[in-house]
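#lab-general

N.A. 3:47 PM
ok so I finally got the sequence cleaned up, no stray characters, all 317 residues accounted for. can someone with queue access submit it? mine expired

B.Y. 3:52 PM
send it over

N.A. 3:53 PM
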Amino acid sequence: MLEVAACGVCRSDHHGWIGEHPRVKNGSILGHEYCGTVVEAGKMAKYSVGDRLIAPFILSCGSCPACHTGVSNTCANQIVPGFTDPGAYAEFVAVPFDHNLVQLPEDMTPGLAAGLGCRVTTAWHALTDRAAVKAGEWVAVHGTGGIGLSTLLLAKALGAQVVVVDIVPEKLESALKLGADAAVNAADGNVADAIIEITEGGANVSIEALGIEATTNASIECLATLGRHVQVGMPVGHTAHMNINMNAVYMKNLAVFGTRGMPAWKYPSLLNLVERGLVDLTPLVAREVGLSDASAELRAMNGPTPPGTAVITNFQG
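B.Y. 4:20 PM
back already:
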């Protein structure tokens, strides 16, 4: 059992909040981006009371074939607080399968750590495992919310060139200040054509970070021959089934990857990058709020949102 120190407010929560996610029912406690302190430990627990821990949002069983082959984020027996079980929009959260958790670095604030639980870990796995991004490659990022900004910062740390796409000028300006090499406003015309022109032939890797048909097709169509598309945005509800330009996939010999979460064993590589100062993830957290403000943050996701994300750090109000 953890006493929650911080919990991010994620667009995945929004899908459940508006009734689009099939696992989230009325009365469910949301919250899957969390960190905290152990206040109670069972007989089989790996950690002790007082340990400060950070959690991936997918808690794998550790015993199935997926877990034994290093892809624990696909575990068939997984527990996902906020979706399959009560989440961390609360003072305390139960954490079964605690072998997934890792110690929180001493100098990392709870607010920043909470943001690593979903958006950053997912972006890191998408870039380093699914897309295998190489230094010098062009990475297109469709959507500059939490996942998009995480992808931008991590791709730059890996030595990639990054072009970002959004419809909110303020968010595009913010991304450019954070190191994006180019920005495209999707409201101004054909996104794929603009990216192909900027990159002089198309992006090598394209990350879709919204989960909707328009951005998924733009992500596929903006790629160069032999490019790699990674579907990070979660297609649920009315976006679960899309009309996709498979001719572009066929003609350009594209690779199309899905991804969700990150195996817990990859945490050290990500935390090491942060601790060595090779990437600054603090711009991701735009504001710290109270638990009573969570509904307002989720409601704001019904439309365009400002740069950065919110993290709940006050659970008393």
